[in-house]
Design a protein that fits this description.
Two copies of one chain form a homodimer. By secondary structure, chain A is mostly helical. Chain A is about 70% helix and about 0% strand. Chains A and B meet through helix 2, helix 7, helix 8, helix 9 and helix 10 of A and helix 2, helix 7, helix 8, helix 9 and helix 10 of B. Chain A binds a DNA duplex (30 and 30 nucleotides) through helix 4.
Chain lengths: ~210, ~210
DNA sequence: ATTGACAATTGACACCTTGTCATATACAAT
DNA sequence: ATTGTATATGACAAGGTGTCAATTGTCAAT
């Protein structure tokens, strides 16, 4: 979390810093993001930066939290659009994220959201817990869907189904990015995955 | 890939370097891994390091590839143990990885394998493509399972089912690590997820 | 207007990084 | 012994981070 000093800053100045940070994070992997470059672009001093943010990680955390909130609000709208239907909601979320990819700046930044393997110590993982749970904990889809469409009405089971769907979404986004799929390809891939989840891969035993 | 110079080194010296690297990667996030510490522990000069490896990333890549090969071979054994049955194989892989977690050194290092969100530029993602696909491309489970247990016999559909299962496995491992679950908890979680995937979340329409 | 108290800003500083390269060394083959 | 080739070295340039004593800005109270 940025310090209160940061939030006391005039909005223009805040924005200038965030823009500079977003630019830098868009063009460099985390380990190569240079605070020097950011403060140069934002025209603030080294000392000020460290009053506003604890470190580079704190800054990234803030950027991501802004992004999360934006998506979360949009997902609320979507759930109404599709009458709380589960699969269509996931597909709409996918479409929305895909559209964000069209903006070059977002595209680069969005690699955060897709996420992939990286080396970290245990402390680092725990520190990042909040960030990691982005898809799973922060979207809170359970309250946005009609639960009667599931064949079980156990809340934990429904939540697990949501977890799997979001894991699938993440996987599809990852494939899309690395193979540069277009929307049609990406979407049909997602639907194929979701179809398998919907009816399972094995015949139910009616003994 | 390390240079041929590295592979020409006496095995003892290679091992000393790899051990020092593994230690460092186990105790620090990628961005904080210090080559200085590694060469100090391995008792080689700065110059030598850069003859052996292109950079820090090249080193990590090599460490991971070794790890991958180890798991891959073990998975082959497992598939025989469980008569090529799909779900039991996934559960056995999970058990195996969980056991690796008991070794403190492996535990820390294994965070690579679980993977999570991190900021990277597009170039970086492409560079890491090989590393990223670890679970999905490198285990090549299709050839290790009995395909008659699926209700469809379309190869791409079976492969997608495998993808989903591995995404679930990854998710469970992530939850296990961040919440410090014991094996029983972790395993039952995995089975619950896999059960949903097995029979789906919706009743099949027999119109 | 001036004061005083507190908030915000600054940049030099100490201490760390990485990747390079000219030089030194080892050692095998002639 | 000499030559050639592979390997090893560490000082160096260039750049990074986080800190802190000193400075400047702001604004309410006098």
């Amino acid at each position: 979390m940025p310090s209160s000093t940061f939030f006391n800053l005039p909005i223009d100045k805040q924005k200038k810093i965030i823009d500079a940070a977003q630019l830098e994070f868009s063009n460099h992997p985390y380990s190569e993001v240079s605070i020097n470059k950011i403060i140069k672009n934002a025209e603030i001093s080294r000392g000020s930066f460290y009053v506003y943010f604890a470190d580079k990680y704190d800054l990234l955390d803030y950027l991501l939290s802004q992004f999360k909130n934006r998506i979360k609000n949009e997902v609320k709208r979507f759930s109404q659009e599709v009458n709380q239907q589960f699969k269509p909601l996931i597909i709409l979320i996918h479409q929305h994220i895909f559209n964000l990819f069209k903006n070059e700046d977002n595209k680069k930044f969005l690699f955060n959201v897709i996420g992939y393997f990286q080396t970290h110590s245990e402390e680092e993982v725990l520190r990042q817990k909040d960030k990691l749970n982005f898809f799973n904990d922060h979207l809170e889809l359970f309250n946005l869907i009609d639960v009667t469409q599931f064949k079980f009405n156990d809340k934990t089971k429904i939540n697990k189904t949501i977890d799997i769907s979001l894991a699938i979404l993440k996987h599809v986004l990852y494939l899309t990015v690395t193979n540069n799929y277009n929307y049609q390809k990406s979407n049909s891939l997602l639907e194929e995955y979701l179809n398998i989840l919907q009816y399972g891969y094995m015949e139910e035993q009616n003994a």
